Automatic annotation (TrEMBL):
Pathway: Cofactor biosynthesis; thiamine diphosphate biosynthesis. This is Thiamine monophosphate synthase. One of its GO terms (cellular component) is cytoplasm. GO terms for biological process: thiamine biosynthetic process. GO terms for molecular function: thiamine-phosphate diphosphorylase activity. Residues 3-174 form the Thiamine phosphate synthase/TenI domain.
Length: 194
């Protein structure tokens, strides 16, 4: 299971991140689109060094080596920049919005987010124009792990994983929850049944 940071600061965010790792969070995608490079470095410096191998950068990829981060995420708009990180030491992920686009990803992608699966929890106007749970039947790419994103919660994790997704990513169900750690543990327990 993957957690993506809230795009803006959250009260006690670093403490929550450390607690998520303590509860077994395998990967945290650091997505702070409004942050300057200096703000991003400052934010990352607050996360314990022991968790660097679990962090995925969404921006300022050129900082990765300096920060000891080997995981990089590329959105649709910046995917062409992934060529700059062609060495095998990099673990790369991508964002896609259709199963057809996912099917065209080459072997150099470890996993990709397909979104939105359900109406987004964090973005009220972000809904899918197709049924991805049905469209997944057209999957032909089995070299890249397929991760469901968008509206994922404890109510639909099992349905999602039971329909052919390899993993799920959480954002709103963590950061907009009054008890993010307990909700994470509940989601994690449900995901581990698959």
């Amino acid at each position: 299971m993957i957690v993506i940071t809230n795009p803006t600061n959250i009260e006690n965010e670093i403490s929550i991140i450390h607690s998520l790792f303590a509860e077994g969070l395998p990967l945290l995608h650091v997505r702070k689109p409004g942050f300057s490079e200096a703000e991003l470095k400052s934010f990352l410096s607050e996360i314990g060094l022991e968790f660097r191998s679990h962090l995925v950068l969404h921006s300022s990829h050129h900082l990765a080596d300096t920060l000891g981060i080997k995981r990089l995420h590329f959105s649709e708009s910046n995917r062409s920049k992934a060529k700059l990180f062609s060495e095998s030491k990099w673990i790369k992920s991508a964002s896609v919005h259709t199963i057809q686009e996912f099917n065209t990803l080459g072997d150099n992608w470890n996993y990709a987010f397909l979104s939105p699966i359900f109406p987004s929890i964090s973005k009220s106007d972000y809904v899918s124009d197709c049924n991805h749970l049905e469209a997944i039947k057209q999957r032909t790419n089995f070299n890249t792990k397929l991760v469901a994103l968008g509206g994922i919660s404890s109510e639909n994790i099992q349905k999602t994983l039971g329909n052919g997704f390899d993993d799920v990513a959480l954002l709103g169900s963590i950061w907009l929850n009054t008890n993010p750690i307990e909700n994470f543990k509940k989601c994690q327990q449900l995901a581990l049944t698959f």
